[in-house]
Amino acid sequence: MPLYKAPLRDMQFVLHELLQTEKNYQSLPDYQETISRELIDQYLEAAADFCENELSPINHSGDQEGCHFNQGAVTTPVGFKEAYQKYTDLGFTSLTASPEYGGQGLPTLLRIVISEMLCSSNWAWAMYPGLAHGAMRTIEHHGTEQQKQKFLPHLVSGVWTGTMCLTESHAGSDLGIIRTKAEPNPDGSYAITGEKIFISAGEHDLAENIIHIVLARLPNAPSGTKGISLFIVPKFNVDDAGNLQDRNNVACTSIEHKMGIHGNATCVMNFDGAKGYLIGPENRGLNCMFTFMNSARIGTAMQGLAASEMAFQGALNYAKDRLAMRSLSGAKCPEKNADPIIVHPAVRSMLMTQKAFSEGGRALAYLLAEQVDIGEKSTDSTQQAYSEELLAFLTPIAKAFLTESGNESAKHGVQVFGGHGFIVEHGMEQIVRDARISTLYEGTTEIQSLDLLARKVLKSEGKLLNNMIGLIEQFIQDHRNNADLKPYLDRLSELKQQWLSLTNHIAKRAKQNPEEIGAASVDYLYFSSYTVFAYLWARMAQVALEKLAAGTQEDKFYKAKLSTAKFFYQKLLHRTEAHAAAIETGAESVMELEEDAFAF
Amino acid sequence: MPLYKAPLRDMQFVLHELLQTEKNYQSLPDYQETISRELIDQYLEAAADFCENELSPINHSGDQEGCHFNQGAVTTPVGFKEAYQKYTDLGFTSLTASPEYGGQGLPTLLRIVISEMLCSSNWAWAMYPGLAHGAMRTIEHHGTEQQKQKFLPHLVSGVWTGTMCLTESHAGSDLGIIRTKAEPNPDGSYAITGEKIFISAGEHDLAENIIHIVLARLPNAPSGTKGISLFIVPKFNVDDAGNLQDRNNVACTSIEHKMGIHGNATCVMNFDGAKGYLIGPENRGLNCMFTFMNSARIGTAMQGLAASEMAFQGALNYAKDRLAMRSLSGAKCPEKNADPIIVHPAVRSMLMTQKAFSEGGRALAYLLAEQVDIGEKSTDSTQQAYSEELLAFLTPIAKAFLTESGNESAKHGVQVFGGHGFIVEHGMEQIVRDARISTLYEGTTEIQSLDLLARKVLKSEGKLLNNMIGLIEQFIQDHRNNADLKPYLDRLSELKQQWLSLTNHIAKRAKQNPEEIGAASVDYLYFSSYTVFAYLWARMAQVALEKLAAGTQEDKFYKAKLSTAKFFYQKLLHRTEAHAAAIETGAESVMELEEDAFAF
């Protein structure tokens, strides 16, 4: 069973060397006084300690035990409650919330970096505070002052948790057709009635109260997505001072049996005239949700990254330890009866792939989190708008690609273990099972692909894509005289051109046939993702070259960065060619088969 | 939970129209009298009835219940024993065995086609007779006449089953380092001592006796693979007339907790001076195993195909049924509140991918099974040698690619279901969990890749590859005037050239550095596999065009073949480009990172 070791050195590389966080955050007035390299490192070390020593040891046992359901109550696996208590004691629930409600007012970036460690060490557990954060953030952004006073302090302290109640059994990707209704009560509250499914952390024994954020329809609301409103529905009613009152009419009626994330309760929630409070404007519930969506999607991206990282750690340890066959170029450990399998190129390729996905994913995720902070806190409106656009553009890429590459890494993790990977006790198959949800929830890979191509790229008439292209061009320009970077810059230059021409190609075809967008979207997402990774790996290579040129005691670390960049460019980046070629063939072969001719 | 429906029409297409089985088998004296289209269809229908009505209904329940272990005894899930009884009553265990020992003397092809249905409808169950077949075949090929008389009749009738005991906890891919020992007894038998793990069907309640085929070392045997011998070790000792006697000293000490195939007992087997009988020559056990290996690997390939087929069937039904969002080109079912998701290109792409893998895999598997029969039964030694070579070449491709594509299809199956795919009751996640073993056992994908590139292609100095290239060239030549086929032939022609030049490229590099072989092998396997599929899809397209030109009442069926061929060429075949480009970059980026620099 792989035990988690926080990759602090690599996290620091991305934060301090690649993104230069300290410098960048100095320009944001809210963080000018607080954010320093030292503070970040202190938080990282505290989180690493908690994740390695509290969460990692209950990860596998939590999977095996799962959650227990008994007459509406959910008991989490052994150790989950105690770990949650420690987590709140350490103040991790209050990181980003406003000091007005008891928060520490720290940047999202810090929360995201810590969430990487939480997800890696115990994905199922990490979802409890993860969902609570979603609820907290929604109230902070859209609640009235009274709602904030009433609900936020206990959410911020972690005494309460929260959920996001969106999905119904017939409505997942398509929220426009939800049926849960909200009828006005005389006191200004609403009676919420309906059944929600797939409610992560909907019921559990970690916290005193659970604050549900619920999508529902007001009477006579327009049909479709424009008739959905958002409500706060507490498990226990709460007075204005935040004291618990009677039980509200919301109950968990069962929990799902799932492929993975067994330690997290996925609940069917029944709202039976439950008292709820409208949050945000009537019929604008989905819009309110969308402000939260980017951050929720980065959260899921972190889970994908976590799968890559854990699968890499497990596989690497095993590959150094397990003996089988001799190296093709002669025995490497002649004193043993076989060589460790890390000498074999096919095993190395899998490890390098995991490493490239994990470290590249880390760079992308932290870059995104930085855009969240700049978008929210910058006083320069141009910079703010730019960051918001970059965030909007990169979010579907990060969500879809980090989760898909996380699944690929998890597969390699099992594969490196051979038959032992299939055995429960080694813990590698759990990573596959846990990771599988990540390409499904918070918008499937297919939904992300449409979001990227249709909403972000085509609807903005290329503006959001051009921002990204601009970043790449700037990087090429800045380092055009760097001979060591030339192979990277040359390839980036080609990719950038191809990206633009593929986009134009799709836009042109889509004018004739809108199905062209859907048919191209998934390949387009992968093409875009590999290109974004290529940009980030080139940037990381550039930093490593700079450090090596300047002289460093960490030669091995920087050389490993260069080797991984090279591996990414030589072995993984060519996948763009398959995706580009597939895009160019258009929609015909996808659409022509009649529905009744798929099987006979 | 998807219920299995045997794709009889497609099976018949491959058997009767693509491979022209009846005609081909007329040239094999053993089958001249027996094999007809009618006979094949009768067997297919009987097997379909059994699989759809007996095995499919206990597939999901078997996964959920799993096997029970109690003091050395294993109880299989509810219904497994009764289904096995029916299976033997129907005579399926005796299909291919020689009539001398009670068999029906039918071709391997028929067994393989039926095994597709068994694996698709209930993978875990199908492994019990699958392993028995392995043991049976080994004894038939390598046993003495006395051993055959003693062990075969009850194996053939299915009253007994069998296993293959190879793996030890420290030795999986590398059988050269096994430790189980065989010491001569005064009576000519051997005392077998050691522990074997991952023994599928090692203990269970389906049969009266279990005949283990065990790899062990004789005293003073040479070290490595050249010092391994093969033994028959029955669970109950047997007299010469085949009557059960006392219990042998072999026992199941535990069963593994696994990711999937829960209905099949994966046993730790302890041999404590168990009585065994040498089979085949001393120290040639691995060679004896290898004659069985190709057929075992086709068996695993069938499991991969089964995963594709089941995932396709489940996803297709759901995609026609589930409503979400509107088609990008306008509502397709305006009377409903959303369109069925099969209208969406991204969903269609997943279904078409599964269909292309499943039907292409079927063609490859049946073609291979045909080579087994020709290799064994042809009286024309040139034809025989050619079939054996083709089999040797295509087996690692079929084993690795059908299982990897089966895993990909299973993933798409879950994805089409969205969040519901993650829920146990829908049965789609079981396909992912079951399928995961198939790229691990019977030689991992990486082992198959080395087998293909190093043993089959390079060691034969290209001869085995040239056979395949010859088939492609012949096909191109035969249909060069067929305008409708031109896009396929042009692409095949390019691929064939590229295949040769990649091979030369690797061979040249390997002379400098043998690691080049390992570094290229997995990409080479994928390149080869997609090219073989391209050949088969072109052949299927040609048959479909011919039928349509001749006039048929099955227009839809043949047009669907053409659409699927087109989809394969346009959307999946371009993956060769990524693999080719990765091969061309060589081993450096795979090998250069030092072992202690993978993580910091």
Automatic annotation (TrEMBL), chains A, B:
Example GO molecular function: oxidoreductase activity, acting on the CH-CH group of donors
Enzyme Commission number: 1.3.99.41
Presence of keyword Nucleotide-binding: no
Entry keywords, A to Z: FAD, Flavoprotein, Oxidoreductase
Organism placement in taxonomy: Bacteria, Pseudomonadati, Pseudomonadota, Gammaproteobacteria, Moraxellales
Domain Acyl-CoA dehydrogenase/oxidase N-terminal: 42-158
UniProt entry tagged with the keyword Flavoprotein: yes
Domain Acyl-CoA dehydrogenase/oxidase C-terminal: 283-453
Reactions the enzyme catalyzes: 3-(methylsulfanyl)propanoyl-CoA + oxidized [electron-transfer flavoprotein] + H(+) = 3-(methylsulfanyl)acryloyl-CoA + reduced [electron-transfer flavoprotein]
Name by which UniProt lists this protein: 3-methylmercaptopropionyl-CoA dehydrogenase
Functional description taken from the UniProt entry: Involved in the assimilation of dimethylsulphoniopropionate (DMSP), an important compound in the fixation of carbon in marine phytoplankton, by mediating the conversion of 3-(methylthio)propanoyl-CoA (MMPA-CoA) to 3-(methylthio)acryloyl-CoA (MTA-CoA).
All residue ranges annotated as the Acetyl-CoA dehydrogenase-like C-terminal domain in the record: 469-593
SUPFAM superfamilies linked to this entry: Acyl-CoA dehydrogenase C-terminal domain-like, Acyl-CoA dehydrogenase NM domain-like
Cofactor: FAD
Family: Belongs to the acyl-CoA dehydrogenase family.
Domain Acyl-CoA oxidase/dehydrogenase middle: residue ranges: 164-272
